[in-house]
Amino acid sequence: MPYRDQSTVQNWVSEFLRSQSDSAPDISVLEQVYPEGRDIGMVTVVLNTAPTSAYLRPVQVDDAPRWSVHFEARDEGFDLDASGVLTLAADLTVLGELCAYLQDRTDATLQAG
């Protein structure tokens, strides 16, 4: 599945990041190799104001890949002032836009393929 390999996902993320400001959250693509030999690019996002991480990956829904965001569990809460909440909202907007972008690229790849 070419839409899942690390190289393809890295290229898509790099293209997406060129359209973002320097204040976007830290986004990277990690390689995951499964015992069956599948190479999957998992996208990790470190939010600017929330002490938690999120990752994006395609999951199968009704026999079709759907990019999904998973937020890591937290042991304790955190407080933000108004500026922090606005920064968190901006981070989440970028995260949602990235998820939609990856879905669009995946859909186009599968249709071409």
Element-by-element helix/strand order: HEEEEH
> What's the number of extended β-strand segments?
4
Number of helices: 2
Name the overall outline.
globular
Write down the domain tally.
1
How would you portray this structure in words?
It is a single chain. With about 110 residues, the chain is an alpha+beta fold. The chain has one domain. Helix content is about 40%, strand content about 30%. Strands 1-2-3-4 form a four-stranded antiparallel beta sheet, covered by helices on one side. It starts with 5 loop residues before the first helix and ends with a helix. GO terms for molecular function: methyltransferase activity. This is Protein-L-isoaspartate carboxylmethyltransferase. Keywords: Methyltransferase, Transferase.
List the helices and strands and how they pair.
Layout: H1 6-18, E1 26-33, E2 39-46, E3 53-61, E4 64-71, H2 82-112
Antiparallel strand pairs: 1-2, 2-3, 3-4
Which features does this protein show?
four-stranded antiparallel beta sheet, single chain
Structure summarized in a few sentences:
The protein contains two helices and four strands. It has 113 residues and is α+β, with helices and mostly antiparallel strands.
